[in-house]
TrEMBL record:
It is found in: Cell membrane. This is Inner membrane transport protein ynfM. Residues 71-449 form the Major facilitator superfamily (MFS) profile domain. It is a multi-pass membrane protein. GO terms for molecular function: transmembrane transporter activity. Keywords: Cell membrane, Membrane, Transmembrane, Transmembrane helix, Transport. The chain crosses the membrane at residues 69-87, 107-129, 136-155, 161-183, 195-214, 220-243, 272-294, 314-331, 366-386, 398-419, 425-446.
Amino acid sequence: MRLCHKLRRRQSAAGKIPLFYRNGVPACLILRGCKHGRAGEDFVSSGGFAIMPLLPTGLTVSAYPPSSFLFRLTVAFIGALAFMQVYSIQSILPLLMRHFQADEVQIGLAVGVTVMGMGLMSPFIGMLSDAFGRRWMICSAIFFYSLPVALSAYAPTIESFTLLRFLVGVFVPGMTVCLIAYLGEEFESKHIGKLMAFYVCGTVFGGFSGRFLLGHLTQWIGWQFSMLLLSGLSFAGFLLVLWQLPPSRHFVAKPQLSTAMRSLVSHLHNRIVLSSCALGFFVLFSLVGCFSFINLRLAQAPYHLNTAQLANIFSVYLIGMIITPAATWLLRKFGAPRTMALSLALSVCGIVISLAQPLMLVFCGLILMSTGVFITQSATISYISLHVREGRSLATGLYYMAYYCGGTAGAWLCALSFQTWQWQGVVGTLLLAQCIGLIIIFSVIWQTSPRAQG
């Protein structure tokens, strides 16, 4: 039987009781002569044998321990896959504007609809994963995610291209929302912060690599064939995750719509969930608005950067990826509210510096801005995972719905600002959004955290 697959049988020193071990830890004992049992409860029986768990009820067991580098790498890899295609076109926006003869608002919409699809699907994906399981949803989402990326290479108009970009976003929550719920179920709270840091690092690397690869490949072989190559990379990632991601061991299916609706009503009255959602809205608003239109600025005079050079701008994401694990230390030392406030203030400083004329100062401003946003995101999702116990995937889905809707709003409003006032207008819009985020932290999140008040 599969229940004790890969478990090594030993004899216990006391009484020669047959034991099975996993990773050197006694996992279950075998009792002869038992013919009845209830799977998933006290014991499981088969063929006159009963398998009784030695681990206490509620103790987390995973195929990989949370300290396993391979498992952490798998978590980061899923995060990278999720965001590799989402913002990749930002590095070639000037080229797409010329190819489709589109204006700033149309091309901004092509970026924004991807995150709109992510936002609209996030709460529904949470409900589906509550019914059908986390791992199945993650693997299916990665597979279907690669298809509209390939088809977008053949889009004849900006409207069809925008529709396909929307479909790309529809499948992303199957990776992001379900992975966070998976980690929350499979591991103890003391491990979640570090695993979330690896996940955020993966999303940062994926966001960078998609933009960087598409920009440089476009310079060599054109944007259509480059999109096909990125689609192939996503499909290869599907095969790797299917092989490496361990099955859920603590998932309990909850397909009832009434249960989901009760959880939804509860979350909509939960100040922790609502304030986190509001903060997430303005976090991605800032990130998408900034990096969608900084390239349009740098493609103009006096910079005149080409596609490959514009792709290099996104190397600031790598610096953010290196610094973001510091969020774990900051969370332990200062708590989530203080970490959010410090990192968002850092992001505000970066936005202001980006107004400078020298390219190096612009680059430094982008580093500060993106790093602050990444740490804020890591702190916020850790805050939700630690404070929400029931309907966790739905709460995460609500957070991501607000988060991605913020990205859509950022792309649209910053497009209008750039069209009217150029980069200065974008900076003003971003500063307004981040100031609202700081108000949310100090007026709501700070008040609901005893540690912050102390």
